[in-house]
Amino acid sequence: MRNAHDLVIIGGGVGGLVTASVAGQLGLDVVLIEREPALGGDCLHAGCVPSKALIRSASIAHAVRHAEAFGIKATASSTDLSAVMDRVRSVIDRIQQHDDPARFRGYGVDVRFGEAAFRDRQTVVVKGQAVRGRRFVIATGSSPAIPPIPGLETIDYLTHHNVFDVRDLPQRLAVIGGGPIGTELAQAFARLGSRVTLIEAGPRILPRDEPALADRLGAHLRDEGVDLRLETNVTGARRDQDCALLDLVADAGPETLGFDRVLVATGRRANTASLNPEAAGLAINADGTLEVDRRLRTRQRHIYAIGDCAGPYPFTHMAEYQAGIIISNAIFRLPRKVDYTAVPWVTYTDPALAQVGMTRAAADAAGLRYERACFALADVDRAIADGESTGELQLLIHRGRIIGASLLAPHAGEIIHELGLAIAEKVPLRRLAGMVHAYPTLAQIIKRAAGAYYAPSLFSPRTRRAVRWIHRVLP
Length: 475
Hints:
- By secondary structure, this protein is an alpha/beta fold.
- It is 33% helix and 24% strand.
- It contains 14 helices and 21 strands.
- Strand 12 and strand 13 (253-259) form a beta hairpin.
């Protein structure tokens, strides 16, 4: 194809940047198009990075308030949210250096800024200029999904896109939505000093996670002062002078509450509509994501999709993983398919809730017969030393191997990867039971859970008889 670039990448988030970096350094003619004024995507500017920086500040405030339980006398004054957000911005700016357009131009990538839309299967238009490509990678991410609440547009609500611009700590904060974003930010603002009401329409927070652990985390949030309203719907919103009023309906009946600010965290929707996908012959799923096969190809085999706009998991680490799949297929022309067997996800509350592999619901849906092994965090020596008691590890075991793991614990996101590797590589549970774990660590909960699973057979009457026989026969 004459005058066509080897690869046109639409979207400068993690997935697009990883693909562009590799393709450019391999000498391909690459164009990278980003509609926002800076590279880095939602994770850097409005998602993972700023939220974790905010959570860290909140954890410091929480530790100071509870220092006396550890024998330390400390005084916590009121939170200076402006200073907290300045720190958040400094973290973003530091990481942004890795995503400087000059770096990618140094790899030979033609970086352009502007909205891209397909004109046909081989061409996109950016700021009136046509860009032709032999192959395309769509990495346009997702945006907050706003629920159709009457009057919501009148109250100047927040989403995770602009909550990090808030400079004054709201005394009363409503968080609508009990998914990962809503749950993390609800705890963070409560620890910083806001009176937080977390409103969730379903029967529990974090509906994709194991119900028992999600319920325990919900109880923990209540203990920290979060007013958790489950099975509660927001039916209306309106402004009353400086107050935002929300109309709530629950089993107890209707209620109207006033808040200084309202944060909407009711999920995300793929950014695909502005691409003019019909012009390229692309199919859109019911949830707004692009239809792709296991090689991440759309219906047009030369057009790939990656990250939030492709699904099925809206995680930055998933976009990075999928970039490797596309690099293999689109650049090296080596057929490689996605494998979602051991995808971890983490809600970064304190304690954090991490999951890898199958949940019980998924295993039941697949018709698998499995056993469970559980171990409480409160019985782990390091947790006792750290003053941590809320948490548990749950393992799903099928034919002697782990097929799923759920962990509620401090630093659960750091610990879960050992279990992810065990699932991906089909490591027998007995290998984990015999593995040496450093003492004292929170990661010992894995060895303890494996040991608890084998304890009934180890100390069974049959084993006891065998041991007595050995000691009678052998000197």
